[in-house]
Structure formats: C-alpha cells, structure tokens
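Please, structure for the following, as tokens.
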Amino acid sequence: MTTHEIELKALMLASLDGDAASHRALLERLSRRLRAYFKGKLAGIGRGISEAEDLVQEAVLAIHLKRHTYDPTEPLTPWVHAIARYKLIDFLRRSRTSFAEVSIEEADTMMAHDDNVDAESSYDLRRLMQRLPEKMRCSIEAVKLDGQSIAEAAGRCGISESGVKVNIHRGLKTLAALIARETQT
C-alpha cells in the first residue's frame, strides 16, 4: 500500500467516524486527483475543462452519498476510481459520445453501470435538492439525474441553455457546500 493510499484511507476512516475536518480534507484531496483524472480522460476525446469540473463535482457528491458503502477492509482508491469511472461513463452516455471515440483500454467499462440506488442516499439527495432554487433544481434533475440533454433541460425548465449550464455548475457547488456544512455538525 502506498503512502498516499494509507493517508487517504485514514482520512476516510476518520470521516466515517464523524470527523468533519477529515471529511473535508478527504474530499479536497480526492477532488484534486479526480480533476486530473477527468481532465486527462476528457482531453483524449476533445472535451473541455468545464465538463471535467462538472464530473469532479458529481463524483465528490457520489462519494459523499455512498460513503457508507465503502468497506474499510479494502483499499480506498479502487472504490473511488469505480465511482469516477461510472460518472465518466454516465457523462459519455448523456453527451452521446460515440464508443468509437473511447480508447480500447476504456472499452470494458462502457458496459458497466451501477443501477443500485441506496434509499438513504436518495433521501439525502432529495432533501438537499429541496434547498436549491427551483430553476437550479430543475436543471440538475433534468441533466444529471434524468439524463436529458442541455437543450431538453432548457425546454423543461423554461430557461436558456446557458442558464441550464450555469445552474448545474452553481447547483453542484452549492450541494457540495451543503454537504460540507452537514458533515461539520
């Protein structure tokens, strides 16, 4: 086990025990690693930095919501990597990126998808989403949860496509801040 893995796992275990400072530190460190991961993967298919940042926010939110599924007897980084892969796959599906644009090394992950939605995590997400303004919540639900395109979400929410993008970006940041506040208490 690498020093990095040991440090991350220690932060995760402290986080699971209710240490808010460790939880924040864990999410910050994972965000940096996830940002590099997503930028690298998306650059290979001609996608931008803003899309990588959206994926970072989605992955960090998923890590927070699914943290109770982590098995402390196992290494942390493969668990985090699996979540990141699923978020990337979901993004590729939503953006209708052709499988031909994905490298052969990633082809085996294109068929994998975690359909298991834990009831407790769903409740947490619904409760947090209710704290967002209506148009922001509509944008996130349409694109990130229901898999609609930006154009479809704009029609559904009654706002412009750029408004949908801004709402998603700001909404995911707001959700991350809400999560951070909740873990402090």
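The first helix runs from residue 3 to 16. The chain has two domains: 1-116, 118-185.
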